[in-house]
Specification:
Elements: E1 2-7, E2 13-17, H1 22-31, E3 38-42, H2 48-59, E4 63-67, E5 72-76, H3 87-92, H4 100-107, E6 109-113, H5 126-134, E7 138-141, E8 146-150, E9 158-160, H6 166-176, E10 182-186, H7 192-203, E11 207-209, E12 215-219, E13 227-230, H8 235-247, E14 251-255, H9 263-272, E15 275-278, E16 284-287, E17 298-299, H10 311-318, E18 324-328, H11 337-344, E19 348-352, E20 355-359, E21 368-370, H12 374-386, E22 390-394, H13 397-402, H14 406-412, E23 416-421
Parallel strand pairs: 2-14, 3-13, 9-10, 17-18, 21-22
Antiparallel strand pairs: 1-22, 1-23, 3-5, 4-5, 6-8, 7-8, 10-12, 11-12, 14-16, 15-16, 18-20, 19-20
Helix pairs in contact: 1-2, 1-7, 4-6, 5-6, 6-7, 8-10, 8-12, 10-12, 11-12
Bound molecules: uridine-diphosphate-N-acetylglucosamine.
The site of uridine-diphosphate-N-acetylglucosamine has 22 residues, from helix 1, helix 5 and helix 6.
Length: 422
């Protein structure tokens, strides 16, 4: 088993370039199933999740060319020979459910094992089903948890999402893009990844308006063609490196970044006393080496609120600032698995239901901890960079699902981290 050894490092300094967004590239790759022509995706990050989806698309009959050295993935779905997603791959990555909408649109059929829960909660998919049913799909779930979806013809519909689910919005958008007539999706998710998917699909010839607002209008078209697209920078990776500058009281110049996508992180870090400077070329400097940092409160919400994916890395920072902070997690019901791990490092955190209170401490100490999920793993690495002594982070496969060249990027900034085989 591999693990990271992280040692107390000085302030992180230097420049880091952000990779393409994991949560944008996955739905975009799934949307490539909608066309029988080449879709060329630039800035595709070299991540385990991207590999898994490549394999899944291949099992469906797509021809996938991966040049992850240059971060280009080319997908040709001319010959979709299967509509059945392999349970082995779906188990490895929940986002595999995103092939359901495109398969229904393209082949009128999809067979997918239910993705099931994960460390951060149950993660049901009934909103995906609700939307696809409204478009005319017949969806049945067998006792063994296999979802069979069929639709002779998809027809546009008015759909209201009870919660602005990111995945449901994406699945419905993809299915509706080739339905007959117009779909109006209300209380849609507004995440930048939804906008990126809509931009990609509009390049394919889809007619999607309103992505990025809570009402999306999709006018179905008969055929979608190939296109070329560059994925947006990863806002969660951006936030993680902003937090790396803050927690180590360093100064990091972050390039290939979209500051508008990290507004709540900018606001909250400024409340803590971190200086954030927007450069003329669109890059951002995050500077925390001038004055002591103080506490703040955060509440996770769907976009444009504070992202749940940065809750655990932000909590790592809050354990090191002056004063008491409060965190409220509203998006997932069980996203405090990292608390126990931070406590092993001396963090003073109390949780009750979805709330956590954090008492800032001057000293974290190195410990053996576990990356309980992808973002919790990043939180452990951040804490390890400032903890006395050595921190060993196990289960790092979670981290490598979502952070491209994480170790190299942190080392490039002066962080003392190495990846070892046990
Ligand atoms: C996406 C992101 C993930 C991020 C999350 C919330 C990808 C690949 N993953 O996940 O990193 O943490 O958005 O920003 O883009 N829900 C239901 N019923 C449903 C669907 C969702 O109750 O049918 C609930 C979930 O249990 C959860 C909340 O809605 O509590 C948010 O889930 P959702 O927005 O769907 O997240 P994902 O698309 O799975």
């Amino acid at each position: 088993m591999e693990k990271y050894i992280v040692r107390k490092s000085g302030p992180l300094r230097g420049e880091v370039s952000i990779s393409g967004a994991k949560n944008a590239v996955l739905p975009i790759m799934a949307a490539a199933l909608l066309s029988d022509e080449d879709c060329v995706i630039n800035d595709a990050p070299a991540l385990l999740d991207v590999d898994i989806l490549c394999r899944l698309l291949e099992t469906l009959g797509a021809v996938v060319k991966k040049d992850l050295q240059d971060n280009v993935v080319t997908i040709n779905s001319a010959d979709i020979s299967s509509v059945e997603a392999s349970s082995k791959l779906v188990k490895q990555m929940r986002a595999s459910i995103l092939v359901m909408g495109p398969l229904l649109a393209r082949k009128g059929e999809a067979v997918i094992p239910l993705p099931g829960g994960c460390a951060i909660g149950d993660r049901p998919v009934e909103l995906h089903f609700k939307g696809l049913r409204a478009l005319g799909a017949d969806i049945r779930v067998s006792i063994t948890g296999i979802v069979k979806a069929k639709a002779e013809k998809l027809r546009g519909a008015d759909i209201y999402l009870d919660f602005p689910s990111v995945g449901a919005t994406e699945n419905i958008m993809m299915a509706a893009s080739m339905a007959e007539g117009v779909t109006i999706l209300e209380n849609a998710a507004q995440e930048p990844e939804i906008v990126d998917l809509a931009n990609f699909m509009n390049k394919m010839g889809a007619k999607i308006k309103g992505a990025g607002t809570d009402i999306i209008k999709i006018e179905g078209v008969e055929r979608l063609h190939g296109c070329q697209h560059t994925v947006i920078p990863d806002r969660i990776e951006t936030g993680t490196f902003m937090l790396a500058a803050a927690i180590t009281r360093g100064c990091i110049h972050i390039t290939n970044v979209e500051p508008d996508h990290v507004k709540p992180v900018i606001a909250k870090l400024r409340e803590c006393g971190v200086e954030i400077i927007m450069m003329d070329d669109g890059s951002m400097v995050v500077k925390a080496d001038e004055k002591p940092l103080t506490s703040t409160d955060i509440k996770t919400l769907p976009y444009p609120g504070f992202p749940t994916d940065l809750q655990s890395p932000f909590m790592a920072l809050l354990t090191t600032v002056n004063g008491n902070s409060a965190v409220i997690e509203t998006v997932f019901e069980n996203r405090y698995m990292h608390v126990k791990e931070l406590q092993k490092m001396g963090a003073k955190i109390k949780t009750q239901d979805r709330s956590a209170t954090i008492k800032g401490t001057k000293k974290l100490k190195g410990a053996s901890v576990v990356a309980t999920d992808l973002r919790a793993g990043a939180a452990m690495v951040l804490a390890g960079l400032v903890a006395e002594g050595t921190t060993e982070v196990a289960e790092i496969h979670h981290i490598e699902r979502g952070y491209e060249h994480f170790v190299e990027k942190i080392r490039g900034l002066g962080g003392d981290i190495e990846r070892v085989e046990e």
